[in-house]
């Protein structure tokens, strides 16, 4: 094992993860668990995210080469995600020689996704807490006004209301896709996922218009800061959820889902419904309340 670890440290980044997996497929399994093989993708993804954060900070301080670093980081993250998702797709496909998603593994994956969503809920609770704390203390810091004087809030009856309808309808299509895959109607699943993806992209486009038309910016008092932090963080989750649904649509198109083996789709739909619920809280507690 020591010799293998040293060899992997030298040539690991040069190998595709499928080659790494192939070195283990001849080993017979006597258990229902998935013992992960060494892979370069978590390492590359972590460094890609680090460089992405670093490059954006440098961009804020007008570093001349920051755009090149941002492009490098985006390419590195994209490469890592595509390759990692490819490997997970192979591991979840019963027709592949790398199949490892036994019922016990699927149960563990569902539990892991549930814990991950719980941590995301805590993130948003922190953001809502900050917003409400600032609004309650507005009587002292902003002459009793929230939003502060000079800031015109976004009309909740325009883009935010349309975005609410968009995400609700996307959630309906996502639910239908889950029902369809459980009945083994894969074509209906793919169609409903496509509809949910289009609506998700429409949400992102409408939110971009909302930001472009807003009469205040990120630097306009604490209201602007916490407003863009909360809505922008949710918008980022919508983007990630859309990518998640695209991956599931491609897997469905290739018929890798079955009625009893679609834990990846279930995870994507849980995440998408979580995004829907958070948006309802944002709409009624932030947009509509101000």
From TrEMBL:
Keywords: Membrane, Mitochondrion, Translocase, Transmembrane, Transmembrane helix. One of its GO terms (cellular component) is membrane. GO terms for molecular function: cytochrome-c oxidase activity. Residues 29-290 form the Heme-copper oxidase subunit III family profile domain. GO terms for biological process: mitochondrial electron transport, cytochrome c to oxygen. It is found in: Membrane. The keyword Transmembrane applies. Pfam families: COX3. Belongs to the cytochrome c oxidase subunit 3 family. This is Cytochrome c oxidase subunit 3. The gene is cox3.
């Amino acid at each position: 094992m020591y010799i293998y670890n040293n060899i992997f440290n030298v040539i690991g980044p040069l190998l595709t993860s499928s080659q790494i997996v192939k070195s283990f497929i001849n080993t017979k399994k006597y258990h229902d668990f998935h013992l992960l093989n060494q892979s370069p993708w978590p390492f590359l993804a972590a460094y890609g995210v680090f460089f992405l954060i670093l490059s954006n900070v440098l961009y804020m301080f007008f570093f001349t080469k920051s755009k090149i670093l941002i492009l490098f980081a985006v390419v590195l993250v994209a490469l890592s995600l595509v390759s990692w998702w490819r490997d997970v797709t192979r591991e979840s496909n019963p027709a592949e020689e790398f199949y490892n998603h036994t019922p016990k593994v699927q149960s563990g994956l569902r539990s892991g996704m549930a814990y991950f969503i719980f941590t995301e809920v805590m993130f948003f609770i922190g953001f809502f807490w900050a917003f409400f704390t600032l609004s309650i203390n507005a009587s002292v810091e902003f002459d009793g006004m929230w939003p502060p004087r000079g800031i015109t809030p976004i009309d909740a009856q325009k883009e935010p209301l349309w975005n609410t309808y968009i995400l609700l309808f996307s959630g309906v299509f996502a639910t239908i896709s889950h029902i369809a895959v459980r009945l083994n109607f894969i074509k209906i699943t793919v169609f409903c996922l496509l509809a949910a993806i289009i609506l998700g992209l429409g949400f992102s486009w409408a939110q971009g218009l909302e930001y472009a038309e807003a009469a205040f910016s990120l630097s306009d008092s604490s209201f602007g800061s916490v407003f863009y932090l909360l809505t922008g963080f949710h918008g980022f989750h919508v983007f990630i959820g859309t990518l998640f649904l695209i991956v599931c649509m491609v897997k469905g198109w290739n018929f890798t889902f079955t009625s009893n083996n679609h834990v990846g789709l279930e995870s994507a739909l849980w995440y998408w419904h979580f995004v829907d619920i958070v948006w309802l809280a944002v709409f009624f507690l932030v947009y509509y309340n101000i």
